[in-house]
Amino acid sequence: MFFVDRMLGKLAKKLRLLGFDTMYINNIKEEAILQLCQQTGRILITRDKTLHRKAIKKGLKSFLINSEMWRDQLVELSKVFDLRKKDKIMMRCSLCNVDLVISSNEQIRKKVPLYVQETQDVFYTCPICGRVYWEGTHVQHIFEEFRRLGF
Protein backbone atom coordinates (compact mmCIF):
# COMPACT_ATOMS: atom_id res chain seq x y z
CA MET A 1 0.00 0.00 0.00
CA PHE A 2 2.78 2.50 0.92
CA PHE A 3 6.32 3.14 -0.22
CA VAL A 4 8.15 5.22 2.37
CA ASP A 5 11.34 6.95 1.23
CA ARG A 6 14.70 6.75 3.01
CA MET A 7 14.07 9.91 5.04
CA LEU A 8 11.22 8.23 6.93
CA GLY A 9 12.56 4.94 8.33
CA LYS A 10 10.93 5.30 11.76
CA LEU A 11 7.59 6.10 10.15
CA ALA A 12 7.90 2.97 7.96
CA LYS A 13 8.49 0.80 11.03
CA LYS A 14 5.49 2.28 12.86
CA LEU A 15 3.22 1.82 9.82
CA ARG A 16 4.27 -1.84 9.72
CA LEU A 17 3.53 -2.20 13.44
CA LEU A 18 0.10 -0.72 12.74
CA GLY A 19 -0.34 -3.49 10.17
CA PHE A 20 0.16 -1.62 6.91
CA ASP A 21 2.05 -3.09 3.97
CA THR A 22 4.90 -0.57 3.88
CA MET A 23 7.88 -0.91 1.57
CA TYR A 24 11.05 0.84 2.73
CA ILE A 25 14.36 0.66 0.91
CA ASN A 26 17.02 3.10 2.07
CA ASN A 27 19.46 2.72 -0.84
CA ILE A 28 17.36 3.17 -3.95
CA LYS A 29 17.47 5.86 -6.61
CA GLU A 30 14.52 8.18 -7.15
CA GLU A 31 13.69 6.83 -10.61
CA ALA A 32 13.58 3.29 -9.19
CA ILE A 33 11.22 4.46 -6.43
CA LEU A 34 8.88 6.03 -8.97
CA GLN A 35 9.01 2.95 -11.19
CA LEU A 36 8.33 0.67 -8.23
CA CYS A 37 5.35 2.78 -7.12
CA GLN A 38 4.03 2.76 -10.67
CA GLN A 39 4.38 -1.04 -11.03
CA THR A 40 2.92 -1.89 -7.60
CA GLY A 41 0.36 0.88 -7.17
CA ARG A 42 1.91 1.92 -3.88
CA ILE A 43 1.38 5.37 -2.44
CA LEU A 44 4.65 7.27 -2.10
CA ILE A 45 5.20 8.86 1.31
CA THR A 46 8.12 11.31 1.24
CA ARG A 47 9.64 14.43 2.78
CA ASP A 48 11.42 15.20 -0.50
CA LYS A 49 9.52 17.95 -2.35
CA THR A 50 11.29 17.24 -5.64
CA LEU A 51 10.50 13.53 -5.50
CA HIS A 52 6.90 14.32 -4.55
CA ARG A 53 6.56 16.66 -7.57
CA LYS A 54 8.05 14.04 -9.89
CA ALA A 55 5.58 11.43 -8.60
CA ILE A 56 2.60 13.73 -9.08
CA LYS A 57 3.82 14.64 -12.57
CA LYS A 58 3.89 10.92 -13.45
CA GLY A 59 0.34 10.52 -12.16
CA LEU A 60 1.36 8.56 -9.05
CA LYS A 61 -0.26 8.88 -5.66
CA SER A 62 2.13 10.71 -3.38
CA PHE A 63 1.90 12.35 0.02
CA LEU A 64 4.40 14.96 1.18
CA ILE A 65 5.20 14.78 4.88
CA ASN A 66 6.18 18.06 6.55
CA SER A 67 6.83 16.88 10.11
CA GLU A 68 10.25 15.71 11.26
CA MET A 69 9.22 13.44 14.16
CA TRP A 70 7.57 10.06 13.59
CA ARG A 71 4.69 10.75 16.00
CA ASP A 72 3.78 13.96 14.18
CA GLN A 73 4.27 12.22 10.83
CA LEU A 74 1.77 9.51 11.79
CA VAL A 75 -0.78 12.10 12.87
CA GLU A 76 -0.19 14.07 9.65
CA LEU A 77 -0.64 10.91 7.58
CA SER A 78 -3.79 9.93 9.48
CA LYS A 79 -5.48 13.14 8.34
CA VAL A 80 -5.41 11.78 4.78
CA PHE A 81 -5.43 7.99 5.24
CA ASP A 82 -7.44 5.87 7.67
CA LEU A 83 -4.72 4.33 9.86
CA ARG A 84 -7.14 2.77 12.35
CA LYS A 85 -6.77 -0.89 11.43
CA LYS A 86 -6.88 -2.42 14.89
CA ASP A 87 -7.21 -6.04 13.77
CA LYS A 88 -3.76 -5.99 12.13
CA ILE A 89 -1.72 -4.17 14.81
CA MET A 90 1.53 -6.02 15.59
CA MET A 91 0.85 -8.71 12.97
CA ARG A 92 3.53 -7.63 10.47
CA CYS A 93 7.31 -7.88 10.80
CA SER A 94 8.67 -4.38 11.43
CA LEU A 95 11.87 -5.27 9.55
CA CYS A 96 10.70 -7.43 6.60
CA ASN A 97 7.16 -6.13 6.05
CA VAL A 98 5.54 -9.60 5.89
CA ASP A 99 2.71 -11.09 7.91
CA LEU A 100 3.85 -12.90 11.06
CA VAL A 101 2.93 -16.54 11.68
CA ILE A 102 1.98 -18.09 15.00
CA SER A 103 4.74 -20.28 16.41
CA SER A 104 4.71 -22.95 19.06
CA ASN A 105 6.88 -22.86 22.17
CA GLU A 106 8.91 -25.68 20.65
CA GLN A 107 9.65 -23.62 17.53
CA ILE A 108 10.92 -20.57 19.47
CA ARG A 109 12.70 -22.44 22.28
CA LYS A 110 16.23 -21.57 21.15
CA LYS A 111 15.35 -18.04 20.08
CA VAL A 112 13.92 -16.40 23.21
CA PRO A 113 15.04 -16.30 26.85
CA LEU A 114 13.63 -18.92 29.22
CA TYR A 115 11.81 -16.27 31.29
CA VAL A 116 9.91 -15.15 28.20
CA GLN A 117 9.00 -18.74 27.31
CA GLU A 118 7.64 -19.26 30.82
CA THR A 119 5.65 -16.02 30.97
CA GLN A 120 4.19 -15.81 27.45
CA ASP A 121 1.67 -18.08 25.76
CA VAL A 122 1.63 -16.81 22.19
CA PHE A 123 4.59 -16.20 19.90
CA TYR A 124 4.78 -14.97 16.32
CA THR A 125 7.67 -15.43 13.92
CA CYS A 126 8.67 -13.65 10.75
CA PRO A 127 8.88 -16.25 7.97
CA ILE A 128 11.71 -14.29 6.31
CA CYS A 129 14.10 -13.11 9.04
CA GLY A 130 13.02 -15.51 11.81
CA ARG A 131 12.58 -12.70 14.35
CA VAL A 132 10.25 -13.76 17.17
CA TYR A 133 7.57 -11.43 18.55
CA TRP A 134 5.52 -11.71 21.74
CA GLU A 135 3.29 -9.41 23.77
CA GLY A 136 5.80 -8.22 26.33
CA THR A 137 5.91 -4.81 28.00
CA HIS A 138 7.46 -3.31 24.85
CA VAL A 139 4.24 -4.12 22.98
CA GLN A 140 2.12 -2.58 25.75
CA HIS A 141 4.23 0.60 25.49
CA ILE A 142 3.80 0.90 21.73
CA PHE A 143 0.03 0.23 22.09
CA GLU A 144 -0.16 3.05 24.66
CA GLU A 145 1.80 5.32 22.34
CA PHE A 146 -0.53 4.53 19.43
CA ARG A 147 -3.58 5.14 21.68
CA ARG A 148 -2.18 8.53 22.76
CA LEU A 149 -1.84 9.44 19.09
CA GLY A 150 -5.46 8.42 18.43
CA PHE A 151 -4.95 5.05 16.75
Automatic annotation (TrEMBL):
Leader sequence segment: none
Gene3D superfamilies, per the entry: 5'-nuclease (3.40.50.1010)
Record field: transmembrane: none
Residue span, Mut7-C RNAse domain: 2-143
Pfam families: Mut7-C
PANTHER family xref list: MUT7-C DOMAIN-CONTAINING PROTEIN (PTHR39081), MUT7-C RNASE DOMAIN-CONTAINING PROTEIN (PTHR39081:SF1)
Protein name: Mut7-C RNAse domain-containing protein
Organism from which the protein derives: Pseudothermotoga lettingae (strain ATCC BAA-301 / DSM 14385 / NBRC 107922 / TMO) (Thermotoga lettingae)
Organism lineage string: Bacteria, Thermotogati, Thermotogota, Thermotogae, Thermotogales
